Amino acid sequence: MNNKGIILALVTALISGISIFSNALFVNQIDPLVFALLRNGAVAILLTTIICLSRQMVEIHHLTRKQWGMLVLIGIIGGGIPFAMFFSGLSIVGALNGNILQKTLFLWVALFAVPVLREKISKLQLAGYLTLFIGMFVISGTYALIPSVGTALVVGATVLWAVEHIVAKVTLATVSPLLVSWARMVFGLPCLFAACLITGKTGLLVHPASFAIMPLLVSSIFLIGYMSSWYRAMKYAPVTLVSSVLVFAPVVTAILSSGIFHKAITTGQLITYMILTVGTILIVIGEVRRKQHLIHI
Questions:
Q1: Which of 98, 175, 272, 277 lies in disulfide reach of 140, CB 3.0 to 4.6 Å?
Q2: pLDDT tens, 32-76?
Q3: Is the pTM of this model over 0.85?
C-alpha cells in the first residue's frame, strides 16, 4: 500500500513547524507583508531558474490554456491576495488570534472538498477533526473572538487558501508540483506588490533591514521545501488529510522552542499539544484504514 501522500503531509507539517520557529527567531524587525513580497520574489527567481535548467520547460510549452488559467488562479488566490489580507488582518487582531483563526483552514478545506472533490471522511477521521477543534478552541483558551475588519480579513484569507487547495488538487492531476509551486510564487507577486503600494509600504522595499540576507535565505529555503512536499502530498493524498495534518505544526514549534531555548510549556499548552497530537494520529490512522478498505474492495 502506497502511503506516500501521508508521509509527505507529515513532512510538510514538520517543515512548517520548523519554519514558524525560524521565522520567529530571524524575522522580527521586518514588516511581514514586505518580507513576504521579498521572500516570494526570491523564491520565484530561484524556481524560474530551476525550471529553465530542467525538463520542466518542455512541460510549460505543452500547457493548455485551461492549465495556464488554473496556474494563474493558484497564484492569485494562493500566493497573492490572501497574504495581503492575512497580514493586514494580523495588524488589527494581533498575531495570536490571527494565527489561530488561520488554523481553521482544515475545516474550510473539508467544507469544500467533500462536495466538490467527493472526498470521503471516515468516522475515525471525524473523531480526529473534533479532537483538533477541541484542542485549538476549547482546551487552549487562548483565542478571543474580536468582531472586526481584521477578523474578516483573516477569515477571508483562510477561505481563499482553502479554495486554493481545491484548485491545486485538480491542477496537480495534470501539472507537476514544481510548476504549481512556481505559479503560486510568480503570479502572486503582483498582488503582494499592489498591497504594499496601497498600504504605503513600498518605501520599506529599499530599506536595508528588509534585505537581511540570513532571514531571507532561511525563510526562502523553508518555503521551497514546504511547497515541494505540500503540493506533492496533495497530489497523492486527499486535501482534507493534508490540511488537517498541518495543524500539528505548532506542536513541532513548541518542541523546538522548549528544547533549544528551554522555553517553558505550561500545563494548559501541554494538554493542548497532546490533544492536537492525538487528533493528528486519528486522522492519519483513519486514512490508512480507508486505503486498506479500498484495496480489499
A1: 272
A2: 888 889 899 999 999 999 998 888 888 898 999 999 999 999 999
A3: yes
Q: Strands, E, within 70-148: which ranges?
A: none
203 vs 206: CA distance, rounded Å = 6
Q: What is the CA radius of gyration of the chain?
A: 19
Of the chain, the percentage scoring pLDDT greater than 90 comes to 49
The pLDDT value recorded for residue 189 is 94
Let me know: does 57 contact 51? Beta carbons within 8 Å: yes
Q: Which residues contact 200 (CB under 8 A, 6 or more apart)?
A: none
pLDDT surpassing 80 at residue 146: no
Joined together, the cell numbers standing for residue 52 give: 529553465
- Give CA–CA dist 125/136, Å, rounded: 17
Q: How many CA atoms lie within 13 A of 11 on its CB side?
A: 19
Q: How far apart are CA 238 and CA 245, in angstroms?
A: 11
Cα distances from 8 to residues 54, 263, 294, in angstroms, run 23, 29, 20
